[in-house]
Design goal:
heterodimer; A: alpha/beta; Rossmann fold; Alpha-Beta Plaits; 2 domains; six-stranded mixed beta sheet; four-stranded antiparallel beta sheet; 12 helices; 14 strands; 29% strand; elongated; disordered C terminus; B: mainly alpha; 11 helices; 83% helix; globular; binds adenosine-5'-triphosphate; binds magnesium ion
């Protein structure tokens, strides 16, 4: 549905987007994840024909954004970073205007306005001036505006920013419910959002795609193994040497990394990562007890997307992961 | 066509949803009203004088009231037009609504013409107020209405040209005050250019004088449609709208 090849965008000197490629299939919800300044907004602006790319091509539903912009524009709904609202209009009036702008037949507009207002929970402020709305409501009106013409592709730039937790939840539900009939691409730097809303993720950092996969795959592939958290204390309030404990843990077969999380006079918290497919929990427990220490805690910790994200976007490792 | 009308209607509603339109209407009505009663006052005292002297000079309402008033309107317009055009694109850029317009299935030119048309229509509404005053003249005298019509046509053509330039200037900034000030400067220059013709005959002076929007209005105020002058305004209008389109395009590149 969306196809991007070698897309590059340069502003005077900064390269905002650097030769990125990706594809999104019909019906997918794709999370576009990246830190500030990664180039998410820039990519979305190119996809929506707001600005042309410096190099490369992008197409939506088979129509090139540069050669057939009108066809592309007819098929997309776009929620920019700041919702594009006219403060002097009432909500209903605004949605009617956008409906006309998107080329809906006049006869259908009142019904569509009613539908999307209900869907985005702005029906109760239909007659209110937009300038008098709270930020959350503005965001919802922005979302309503994006879906009014029932577009094939929805492009949402940080759709949940500025919403309260309940609204965030509702918006995510809304986006998921839209996925049946639409292809959705949404940008965010909030990780749980991707985990909860999207089925695919494209991680972008400093203008390059550093990873793209299904959310489930990415989580398991990058750290095939689980990590476990353990707390080790000395018996009878003894002092315990961190170095000794760490050394012992590292010697256990299958352990790939031991990270000290916190430590005090009596005990130390470690996080132990193991190689893929190895369960080291029993070995760790035995080893600690045999050394004459106490094992106060042992629990598995899920590797969150957040860690993957930080790892991918923070370091040179990014390039390795891509392969 | 539908798109142009969609944009135009939205723009007109914005004018009337804010104090801008009312402020302009009030200002125009007061200033113009003052000019009007002044002109009538002069006319009345003139005709009194000629009656007392026993001469019955033919007094021409058109020549003595309507023509000078139309000329004045042409100049007052230079001051009001920047206030009409300044917000057209600057405000969309500031609010981020440009992103909505430019990603909707609407051609750039449709957006531009829609906005420009709304501005011309608002100016037309201002002129309509002046026409109300002229109705008084018909009640008390027999002015010729044809030259008046030509005069209004000229005023609209002139406004169309200046509004097109104002629209272009509005695309270059996010700040409507800056857009307004710059447009005002341009309008003023296009007015005073004709002054050089008073002391200089060189080619550059002729060009400058030719660029003067007010001097092109003069024939219209006399009720004469001179194609040369009409073409001047129309060319200027196209130029302004064309520049607006180019500016929007480059906005996309830089955005
Ligand atoms: N109009 C512009 N002129 C020059 N540079 C720009 C412009 N817009 C964006 N940039 C630069 O391009 C890069 C990418 O910006 P972009 O807005 O796409 O990031 P983003 O991923 O959307 O970030 P955020 O999460 O903060 O929204 C940044 O380095 C930014 O400074
Ligand atoms: Mg952004």
């Amino acid at each position: 549905m969306i196809k991007v090849e070698g897309l590059t965008k340069r502003y005077d000197r900064t390269v905002a987007v650097n030769a990125i490629d990706f594809e999104v299939d019909k019906g997918q919800i794709v999370g576009f994840l990246g830190p500030n300044g990664a180039g998410k907004t820039t990519t979305m602006r190119i996809l929506t024909c707001f600005m042309p790319p410096t190099e490369g091509t992008a197409s939506i539903a088979g129509f090139d954004v540069q050669k057939q912009p009108q066809e592309v524009k007819r098929r997309i709904g776009y929620l920019p970073e700041t919702p594009p609202l006219y403060p002097e209009m009432e909500v209903e009036e605004y949605l009617t205007f956008v409906g006309r702008l998107k080329g809906l037949p006049s006869a259908e507009i009142p019904q569509r306005v009613k539908d999307v207002a209900e869907r985005c929970a702005v029906a109760d402020v239909r007659k209110k001036l937009i300038s008098k709305l709270s930020k959350g409501y503005r965001q919802r009106v922005g979302l309503a505006q994006a879906i009014i013409h029932n577009p094939d592709v929805l492009i949402l730039d940080e759709p949940t920013s500025g919403l309260d937790p309940k609204q965030i939840h509702e918006t995510r539900d809304l986006i998921r419910s839209l996925a049946a009939a639409h292809t959705v691409i949404l940008s965010t730097h909030i990780l749980p959002e991707v985990e909860q809303t999207c089925d695919h993720v494209i991680i972008i950092s400093r203008g390059s795609v550093v990873a793209r996969d299904s959310v489930a795959n990415l989580t398991s592939r990058l750290r095939g193994a689980e990590a476990i958290a353990v707390e080790v204390t000395g018996r009878n309030q003894d002092q315990l040497d961190v170095g000794a404990v760490r050394q012992k843990l590292e010697q256990i077969a299958g352990v790939s990394r031991v990270v000290l999380k916190s430590s005090n006079d009596h005990g130390h918290h470690f996080e132990i990562e193991s190689l893929q497919g190895r369960n080291v929990r029993a070995d760790v427990a035995r080893s600690v007890v045999e050394s004459g220490w106490d094992l106060n805690e042992l629990r598995p910790v899920a590797v969150s997307l957040e860690e993957i994200f930080l790892e991918l976007t923070a370091s040179e490792k990014a390039t390795e992961v891509k392969q | 066509m539908r798109n142009i009308w969609t944009i135009c209607r939205k723009e007109l509603k914005s004018y009337f949803a804010s104090p801008v339109a009312y402020l302009l209407l009030a200002m125009f009505a007061i200033i113009w009203g003052f000019f009007f009663w002044n002109a009538v006052g002069i006319f009345v005292s003139f005709s009194m004088q000629s009656q007392m002297m026993g001469r019955s000079m033919p007094m021409d309402l058109n020549e003595m009231i309507i023509r000078p008033l139309l000329m004045n309107t042409s100049v007052i317009g230079l001051f009001l037009i920047p206030m009409i055009s300044m917000r057209l694109f600057a405000e969309e850029k500031r609010q981020g609504t440009a992103e909505l317009l430019l990603t909707s299935p609407v051609r750039d030119m449709e957006i531009i013409i829609g906005k420009w048309l709304a501005a011309v229509m608002l100016y037309g509404a201002l002129l309509a107020i002046t026409a109300l005053n002229f109705i008084w003249l018909f009640a008390y005298g027999k002015p010729d209405w044809k030259p008046m019509l030509v005069g209004y046509l000229g005023l609209l053509l002139q406004a169309g040209a200046l509004l097109a330039i104002g629209t272009f200037i509005s695309t270059t900034t996010k700040n409507q005050i800056i857009a307004g000030a710059a447009t005002f400067g341009v309008c003023l220059l296009l007015w005073v250019f004709e002054w050089v013709a008073g002391y200089e005959q060189a080619a550059w002076a002729k060009v400058m004088a030719y660029m003067s929007v007010v001097s092109h209005f003069e024939p219209f105020s006399k009720g004469v449609i001179d194609t040369k002058d009409a073409i001047f305004y129309i060319t200027l209008t196209f130029f302004g709208l064309f520049m607006t389109a180019r500016s929007l395009e480059s906005l996309r590149w830089r955005a």
